[in-house]
Design goal:
The chain has 379 residues and is α+β, with helices and mostly antiparallel strands. It contains 13 helices and 17 strands. The longest helix has 20 residues. It binds guanosine-5'-diphosphate and manganese (II) ion.
Length: 379
Protein backbone atom coordinates (compact mmCIF):
# COMPACT_ATOMS: atom_id res chain seq x y z
CA UNK A 1 0.00 0.00 0.00
CA UNK A 2 1.32 3.41 -0.97
CA UNK A 3 1.12 6.31 1.45
CA UNK A 4 0.69 9.93 0.49
CA UNK A 5 3.60 12.26 1.09
CA UNK A 6 1.80 13.98 3.98
CA UNK A 7 1.20 10.62 5.68
CA UNK A 8 4.78 9.49 5.11
CA UNK A 9 6.00 12.80 6.55
CA UNK A 10 4.09 12.09 9.75
CA UNK A 11 5.80 8.71 10.14
CA UNK A 12 9.19 10.24 9.32
CA UNK A 13 8.70 13.00 11.85
CA UNK A 14 7.63 10.52 14.54
CA UNK A 15 10.94 8.76 13.93
CA UNK A 16 12.75 12.06 14.49
CA UNK A 17 13.52 13.03 10.89
CA UNK A 18 13.48 16.79 10.71
CA UNK A 19 10.91 18.02 8.19
CA UNK A 20 9.27 21.45 8.01
CA UNK A 21 5.76 21.80 9.42
CA UNK A 22 2.96 21.74 6.83
CA UNK A 23 -0.68 20.89 6.25
CA UNK A 24 -3.02 19.50 3.60
CA UNK A 25 -5.85 21.28 1.80
CA UNK A 26 -8.66 20.13 -0.47
CA UNK A 27 -9.72 23.57 -1.74
CA UNK A 28 -7.83 26.68 -2.89
CA UNK A 29 -9.15 28.73 0.06
CA UNK A 30 -7.96 26.09 2.51
CA UNK A 31 -4.59 26.17 0.78
CA UNK A 32 -4.51 29.95 1.13
CA UNK A 33 -5.29 29.69 4.86
CA UNK A 34 -2.51 27.16 5.42
CA UNK A 35 -0.05 29.32 3.48
CA UNK A 36 -1.03 32.35 5.58
CA UNK A 37 -0.51 30.41 8.82
CA UNK A 38 2.90 29.18 7.70
CA UNK A 39 3.93 32.64 6.46
CA UNK A 40 6.59 33.33 3.83
CA UNK A 41 7.22 31.35 0.68
CA UNK A 42 5.52 27.96 0.43
CA UNK A 43 5.43 24.94 -1.86
CA UNK A 44 2.09 23.55 -3.04
CA UNK A 45 2.37 19.81 -3.71
CA UNK A 46 -0.05 17.38 -5.35
CA UNK A 47 -0.80 14.39 -3.12
CA UNK A 48 -1.00 11.39 -5.44
CA UNK A 49 0.55 7.94 -5.32
CA UNK A 50 3.01 8.72 -8.09
CA UNK A 51 6.53 10.03 -8.40
CA UNK A 52 7.55 12.68 -10.89
CA UNK A 53 4.97 15.15 -9.64
CA UNK A 54 7.48 17.95 -10.08
CA UNK A 55 7.88 17.23 -13.81
CA UNK A 56 4.12 16.90 -14.23
CA UNK A 57 3.52 20.39 -12.80
CA UNK A 58 2.24 19.12 -9.46
CA UNK A 59 4.84 20.92 -7.32
CA UNK A 60 4.79 24.74 -7.36
CA UNK A 61 6.46 27.49 -5.37
CA UNK A 62 4.28 30.37 -4.14
CA UNK A 63 5.50 33.69 -2.72
CA UNK A 64 2.15 34.74 -1.24
CA UNK A 65 -0.99 33.03 0.15
CA UNK A 66 -3.03 34.14 -2.86
CA UNK A 67 -0.46 32.68 -5.22
CA UNK A 68 -0.67 29.43 -3.22
CA UNK A 69 -4.44 29.46 -3.72
CA UNK A 70 -3.90 29.92 -7.46
CA UNK A 71 -1.51 26.96 -7.63
CA UNK A 72 -3.89 24.81 -5.56
CA UNK A 73 -6.70 25.68 -7.97
CA UNK A 74 -4.63 24.36 -10.88
CA UNK A 75 -3.20 21.31 -9.10
CA UNK A 76 -6.44 20.05 -7.49
CA UNK A 77 -8.19 17.90 -10.07
CA UNK A 78 -5.04 17.53 -12.14
CA UNK A 79 -4.40 14.00 -13.51
CA UNK A 80 -0.90 12.64 -12.85
CA UNK A 81 -0.15 9.14 -14.16
CA UNK A 82 -3.90 8.34 -14.37
CA UNK A 83 -4.51 9.46 -10.78
CA UNK A 84 -6.68 12.47 -9.92
CA UNK A 85 -5.27 14.92 -7.37
CA UNK A 86 -7.73 15.38 -4.49
CA UNK A 87 -5.45 17.00 -1.93
CA UNK A 88 -2.48 19.32 -1.87
CA UNK A 89 0.20 19.63 0.78
CA UNK A 90 1.44 23.10 1.69
CA UNK A 91 4.89 23.35 3.25
CA UNK A 92 7.33 26.20 3.81
CA UNK A 93 9.70 26.51 0.85
CA UNK A 94 13.32 25.68 1.50
CA UNK A 95 16.26 27.24 -0.32
CA UNK A 96 18.21 24.50 -2.05
CA UNK A 97 21.95 24.27 -2.72
CA UNK A 98 22.10 20.53 -3.50
CA UNK A 99 19.71 17.60 -3.97
CA UNK A 100 20.60 14.03 -3.01
CA UNK A 101 18.74 10.72 -2.96
CA UNK A 102 18.36 8.43 0.07
CA UNK A 103 16.11 5.39 -0.14
CA UNK A 104 15.62 1.94 1.30
CA UNK A 105 13.93 -0.95 -0.45
CA UNK A 106 13.22 -4.55 0.41
CA UNK A 107 15.54 -6.42 -1.93
CA UNK A 108 14.23 -9.89 -2.64
CA UNK A 109 17.51 -11.06 -4.13
CA UNK A 110 19.65 -10.41 -1.06
CA UNK A 111 16.58 -10.90 1.16
CA UNK A 112 17.54 -7.74 3.03
CA UNK A 113 16.69 -4.09 3.26
CA UNK A 114 19.02 -2.31 0.87
CA UNK A 115 19.96 1.32 1.47
CA UNK A 116 20.71 3.30 -1.66
CA UNK A 117 22.15 6.80 -1.74
CA UNK A 118 23.21 9.12 -4.51
CA UNK A 119 24.52 12.66 -4.68
CA UNK A 120 22.50 12.95 -7.92
CA UNK A 121 19.09 13.35 -6.32
CA UNK A 122 15.94 15.24 -7.16
CA UNK A 123 15.47 13.23 -10.35
CA UNK A 124 14.06 9.76 -10.94
CA UNK A 125 16.43 7.29 -9.32
CA UNK A 126 15.49 4.74 -12.01
CA UNK A 127 16.93 7.18 -14.54
CA UNK A 128 20.19 7.52 -12.60
CA UNK A 129 20.35 3.73 -12.24
CA UNK A 130 19.92 3.31 -15.99
CA UNK A 131 22.28 6.02 -17.24
CA UNK A 132 24.97 6.25 -14.54
CA UNK A 133 24.69 3.38 -12.07
CA UNK A 134 28.12 4.22 -10.63
CA UNK A 135 26.55 7.29 -9.03
CA UNK A 136 24.50 5.13 -6.68
CA UNK A 137 26.00 3.58 -3.53
CA UNK A 138 24.28 0.52 -2.12
CA UNK A 139 24.39 -1.35 1.16
CA UNK A 140 22.47 -4.52 2.06
CA UNK A 141 21.69 -4.33 5.78
CA UNK A 142 21.93 -7.37 8.02
CA UNK A 143 18.73 -7.18 10.09
CA UNK A 144 20.47 -8.87 13.04
CA UNK A 145 22.65 -5.80 13.55
CA UNK A 146 20.74 -3.06 11.79
CA UNK A 147 22.44 -0.12 10.11
CA UNK A 148 25.71 0.31 11.99
CA UNK A 149 27.00 3.84 12.69
CA UNK A 150 30.17 3.46 10.60
CA UNK A 151 28.14 2.13 7.66
CA UNK A 152 25.82 5.12 7.79
CA UNK A 153 28.81 7.47 7.99
CA UNK A 154 30.45 5.80 4.97
CA UNK A 155 27.29 6.33 2.92
CA UNK A 156 27.09 9.90 4.25
CA UNK A 157 30.55 10.52 2.77
CA UNK A 158 29.20 9.36 -0.59
CA UNK A 159 26.88 12.39 -0.43
CA UNK A 160 28.83 15.17 1.32
CA UNK A 161 32.35 16.33 2.18
CA UNK A 162 31.39 18.43 5.19
CA UNK A 163 31.54 16.18 8.27
CA UNK A 164 28.62 17.96 9.91
CA UNK A 165 26.49 17.22 6.88
CA UNK A 166 27.77 13.64 6.72
CA UNK A 167 26.71 13.15 10.35
CA UNK A 168 23.31 14.70 9.68
CA UNK A 169 22.77 12.44 6.67
CA UNK A 170 23.94 9.35 8.60
CA UNK A 171 21.44 10.13 11.34
CA UNK A 172 18.63 10.47 8.80
CA UNK A 173 19.60 7.13 7.20
CA UNK A 174 19.42 5.44 10.59
CA UNK A 175 16.00 6.98 11.20
CA UNK A 176 14.88 5.93 7.72
CA UNK A 177 15.89 2.35 8.56
CA UNK A 178 13.84 2.64 11.78
CA UNK A 179 10.73 3.75 9.88
CA UNK A 180 11.26 0.89 7.42
CA UNK A 181 11.56 -1.82 10.07
CA UNK A 182 8.95 -0.47 12.52
CA UNK A 183 6.18 -0.17 9.96
CA UNK A 184 6.66 -3.18 7.71
CA UNK A 185 7.67 -1.02 4.77
CA UNK A 186 8.96 -2.29 1.44
CA UNK A 187 10.19 1.19 0.55
CA UNK A 188 11.10 4.34 2.45
CA UNK A 189 12.57 7.17 0.41
CA UNK A 190 13.68 10.77 0.64
CA UNK A 191 14.17 12.41 -2.76
CA UNK A 192 15.41 15.06 -2.54
CA UNK A 193 17.46 15.23 0.62
CA UNK A 194 18.72 18.79 0.29
CA UNK A 195 21.33 21.08 1.72
CA UNK A 196 20.46 24.72 2.31
CA UNK A 197 22.66 27.83 2.01
CA UNK A 198 23.14 27.74 5.81
CA UNK A 199 24.43 24.16 5.55
CA UNK A 200 21.39 22.38 6.96
CA UNK A 201 20.44 18.92 5.67
CA UNK A 202 16.68 18.64 5.10
CA UNK A 203 14.25 16.02 3.80
CA UNK A 204 11.93 17.70 1.30
CA UNK A 205 9.97 14.69 0.06
CA UNK A 206 8.73 11.55 1.78
CA UNK A 207 7.68 8.29 0.23
CA UNK A 208 6.62 5.06 1.94
CA UNK A 209 5.23 1.82 0.54
CA UNK A 210 3.92 -0.64 3.11
CA UNK A 211 3.73 -4.40 2.78
CA UNK A 212 -0.02 -5.13 2.68
CA UNK A 213 0.58 -8.01 5.09
CA UNK A 214 1.35 -5.59 7.94
CA UNK A 215 -2.08 -3.96 7.79
CA UNK A 216 -3.98 -6.61 9.70
CA UNK A 217 -1.59 -6.29 12.64
CA UNK A 218 -1.42 -2.51 12.48
CA UNK A 219 -4.88 -0.93 12.28
CA UNK A 220 -3.24 2.48 12.76
CA UNK A 221 -1.50 2.01 9.42
CA UNK A 222 -4.52 0.41 7.75
CA UNK A 223 -6.52 3.61 8.34
CA UNK A 224 -4.03 5.47 6.13
CA UNK A 225 -5.46 3.80 3.04
CA UNK A 226 -6.99 6.38 0.69
CA UNK A 227 -9.21 4.47 -1.73
CA UNK A 228 -10.10 7.66 -3.62
CA UNK A 229 -6.45 7.86 -4.64
CA UNK A 230 -6.15 4.29 -5.90
CA UNK A 231 -6.97 2.79 -9.30
CA UNK A 232 -10.71 1.91 -9.17
CA UNK A 233 -10.12 -1.60 -10.56
CA UNK A 234 -7.65 -2.37 -7.78
CA UNK A 235 -10.04 -1.12 -5.07
CA UNK A 236 -12.88 -3.22 -6.46
CA UNK A 237 -10.67 -6.31 -6.72
CA UNK A 238 -9.37 -5.97 -3.17
CA UNK A 239 -12.87 -5.53 -1.76
CA UNK A 240 -13.99 -8.69 -3.54
CA UNK A 241 -11.02 -10.62 -2.16
CA UNK A 242 -9.29 -10.94 -5.52
CA UNK A 243 -5.60 -10.54 -6.16
CA UNK A 244 -5.45 -8.45 -9.32
CA UNK A 245 -2.54 -6.87 -11.10
CA UNK A 246 -2.96 -5.12 -14.42
CA UNK A 247 -0.43 -5.97 -17.13
CA UNK A 248 0.26 -4.82 -20.68
CA UNK A 249 -1.10 -7.66 -22.86
CA UNK A 250 -4.52 -8.44 -24.35
CA UNK A 251 -5.39 -11.89 -22.95
CA UNK A 252 -7.49 -11.51 -19.81
CA UNK A 253 -6.84 -14.32 -17.32
CA UNK A 254 -9.11 -15.61 -14.54
CA UNK A 255 -7.39 -18.32 -12.55
CA UNK A 256 -7.67 -19.89 -9.11
CA UNK A 257 -4.47 -20.00 -7.10
CA UNK A 258 -1.36 -17.86 -7.48
CA UNK A 259 0.81 -20.73 -8.73
CA UNK A 260 -1.63 -21.75 -11.44
CA UNK A 261 -2.10 -18.08 -12.34
CA UNK A 262 1.64 -17.70 -12.93
CA UNK A 263 1.85 -20.98 -14.85
CA UNK A 264 -1.07 -19.79 -17.00
CA UNK A 265 0.65 -16.51 -17.77
CA UNK A 266 3.82 -18.38 -18.72
CA UNK A 267 1.84 -20.61 -21.05
CA UNK A 268 0.06 -17.65 -22.65
CA UNK A 269 3.49 -16.22 -23.47
CA UNK A 270 4.76 -19.62 -24.62
CA UNK A 271 1.98 -19.74 -27.22
CA UNK A 272 2.79 -16.23 -28.43
CA UNK A 273 0.29 -14.19 -26.46
CA UNK A 274 0.58 -11.58 -23.70
CA UNK A 275 -1.46 -11.67 -20.49
CA UNK A 276 -3.52 -8.55 -19.74
CA UNK A 277 -3.50 -9.21 -16.03
CA UNK A 278 -2.65 -11.45 -13.13
CA UNK A 279 -5.85 -12.47 -11.38
CA UNK A 280 -6.22 -15.00 -8.61
CA UNK A 281 -9.83 -15.58 -7.59
CA UNK A 282 -8.58 -17.46 -4.53
CA UNK A 283 -9.50 -20.78 -3.08
CA UNK A 284 -13.01 -20.15 -1.82
CA UNK A 285 -16.17 -21.00 -3.72
CA UNK A 286 -18.04 -17.84 -4.52
CA UNK A 287 -19.78 -17.03 -7.82
CA UNK A 288 -19.82 -13.31 -6.91
CA UNK A 289 -16.04 -13.19 -7.05
CA UNK A 290 -16.17 -14.48 -10.60
CA UNK A 291 -18.73 -11.83 -11.55
CA UNK A 292 -16.50 -9.09 -10.12
CA UNK A 293 -13.44 -10.57 -11.84
CA UNK A 294 -15.18 -10.54 -15.22
CA UNK A 295 -16.46 -7.02 -14.69
CA UNK A 296 -12.97 -5.72 -13.93
CA UNK A 297 -11.39 -7.52 -16.87
CA UNK A 298 -14.01 -6.59 -19.46
CA UNK A 299 -13.73 -2.93 -18.50
CA UNK A 300 -10.16 -2.93 -19.81
CA UNK A 301 -10.35 -1.99 -23.53
CA UNK A 302 -7.05 -3.72 -24.32
CA UNK A 303 -8.50 -7.15 -23.43
CA UNK A 304 -9.35 -9.00 -26.68
CA UNK A 305 -10.12 -12.47 -25.27
CA UNK A 306 -10.61 -13.96 -21.83
CA UNK A 307 -9.30 -17.24 -20.47
CA UNK A 308 -10.68 -19.08 -17.47
CA UNK A 309 -8.28 -21.64 -16.10
CA UNK A 310 -9.80 -23.34 -13.07
CA UNK A 311 -8.46 -26.34 -11.23
CA UNK A 312 -11.24 -27.43 -8.90
CA UNK A 313 -10.02 -28.48 -5.48
CA UNK A 314 -11.53 -26.41 -2.69
CA UNK A 315 -12.83 -24.20 -5.48
CA UNK A 316 -15.94 -25.82 -6.93
CA UNK A 317 -15.95 -25.53 -10.70
CA UNK A 318 -19.78 -25.33 -10.73
CA UNK A 319 -19.52 -22.16 -8.60
CA UNK A 320 -17.21 -20.70 -11.21
CA UNK A 321 -19.57 -21.74 -14.02
CA UNK A 322 -22.48 -20.13 -12.16
CA UNK A 323 -20.39 -16.99 -11.77
CA UNK A 324 -19.71 -16.84 -15.51
CA UNK A 325 -23.37 -17.35 -16.38
CA UNK A 326 -24.40 -14.82 -13.72
CA UNK A 327 -21.99 -12.23 -15.10
CA UNK A 328 -23.29 -12.68 -18.65
CA UNK A 329 -26.81 -12.03 -17.34
CA UNK A 330 -25.68 -8.83 -15.60
CA UNK A 331 -23.57 -7.23 -18.32
CA UNK A 332 -22.49 -7.73 -21.88
CA UNK A 333 -19.13 -9.32 -22.58
CA UNK A 334 -18.04 -8.37 -26.09
CA UNK A 335 -14.89 -10.49 -26.27
CA UNK A 336 -14.65 -14.28 -26.66
CA UNK A 337 -14.31 -16.36 -23.49
CA UNK A 338 -12.36 -19.62 -23.46
CA UNK A 339 -12.99 -21.82 -20.45
CA UNK A 340 -10.84 -24.62 -19.14
CA UNK A 341 -11.96 -26.31 -15.99
CA UNK A 342 -11.29 -29.58 -14.30
CA UNK A 343 -11.77 -31.07 -10.84
CA UNK A 344 -14.46 -30.70 -8.19
CA UNK A 345 -17.99 -30.86 -9.67
CA UNK A 346 -16.78 -30.52 -13.25
CA UNK A 347 -19.70 -32.48 -14.70
CA UNK A 348 -22.13 -30.00 -13.14
CA UNK A 349 -20.03 -27.09 -14.32
CA UNK A 350 -20.03 -28.40 -17.89
CA UNK A 351 -23.80 -28.83 -17.79
CA UNK A 352 -24.34 -25.28 -16.44
CA UNK A 353 -22.22 -23.86 -19.26
CA UNK A 354 -23.76 -26.05 -21.98
CA UNK A 355 -27.23 -24.93 -20.89
CA UNK A 356 -26.33 -21.43 -22.04
CA UNK A 357 -24.51 -22.60 -25.16
CA UNK A 358 -20.95 -22.42 -23.86
CA UNK A 359 -18.34 -25.13 -23.83
CA UNK A 360 -15.60 -26.02 -21.41
CA UNK A 361 -12.25 -27.48 -22.36
CA UNK A 362 -10.31 -29.93 -20.27
CA UNK A 363 -6.72 -29.36 -21.36
CA UNK A 364 -4.71 -26.35 -20.32
CA UNK A 365 -2.54 -26.24 -23.48
CA UNK A 366 -5.55 -26.50 -25.73
CA UNK A 367 -7.36 -23.69 -23.91
CA UNK A 368 -4.37 -21.36 -23.91
CA UNK A 369 -3.64 -21.96 -27.62
CA UNK A 370 -7.25 -21.21 -28.41
CA UNK A 371 -7.46 -18.00 -26.37
CA UNK A 372 -4.22 -16.68 -27.85
CA UNK A 373 -5.57 -17.34 -31.36
CA UNK A 374 -8.85 -15.59 -30.56
CA UNK A 375 -7.05 -12.56 -29.13
CA UNK A 376 -4.90 -12.35 -32.28
CA UNK A 377 -7.95 -12.54 -34.55
CA UNK A 378 -9.58 -9.67 -32.65
CA UNK A 379 -6.50 -7.48 -32.39
P1 LIG B 1 8.33 14.49 -6.96
O1 LIG B 1 8.70 15.12 -8.26
O2 LIG B 1 6.98 13.83 -7.04
O3 LIG B 1 9.36 13.56 -6.44
O4 LIG B 1 8.16 15.69 -5.89
P2 LIG B 1 9.25 16.37 -4.94
O5 LIG B 1 8.64 16.62 -3.64
O6 LIG B 1 10.51 15.58 -4.90
O7 LIG B 1 9.52 17.78 -5.64
C1 LIG B 1 10.08 17.85 -6.92
C2 LIG B 1 11.13 18.94 -6.97
O8 LIG B 1 10.56 20.19 -6.59
C3 LIG B 1 12.30 18.75 -6.04
O9 LIG B 1 13.28 17.89 -6.55
C4 LIG B 1 12.79 20.16 -5.85
O10 LIG B 1 13.67 20.50 -6.92
C5 LIG B 1 11.53 20.99 -5.97
N1 LIG B 1 11.12 21.37 -4.61
C6 LIG B 1 10.39 20.67 -3.74
N2 LIG B 1 10.28 21.32 -2.56
C7 LIG B 1 10.97 22.47 -2.70
C8 LIG B 1 11.26 23.58 -1.83
O11 LIG B 1 10.88 23.65 -0.65
N3 LIG B 1 12.03 24.58 -2.34
C9 LIG B 1 12.49 24.57 -3.61
N4 LIG B 1 13.23 25.57 -4.05
N5 LIG B 1 12.24 23.55 -4.46
C10 LIG B 1 11.49 22.51 -4.01
MN1 LIG C 1 10.62 13.44 -4.92
Amino acid sequence: MNLHEYQARDLFRKAGIKMPEGDVATTPSEAEAVARTLGGKVVVKAQVHAGGRGKAGGVKLAATPSEAAGHAEKILGMVIKDLVVGKVLIVPAAEITSEAYVGMILDRESQRPVLMVSASGGVDIEEVAATSPEKISRLAIDPRYGLLPHQAMALGFALYEDVGQVRAAAKIMTQLYGVFMDNGATLTEINPLVTTPTGEVLALDAKITLDDNILERRPDLATLRDETAEAPSEVEARRAGLTFIKLEGNVGCVVNGAGLAMATMDLVKYYGGEPANFLDIGGSSNPDKVVTALRIITRDPSVKAILFNIFGGITRTDDVANGIVGALEQFKVEVPIVIRLTGTNEQEAIRILEDVGMTALNGMDEAVEQVVARAKEAA
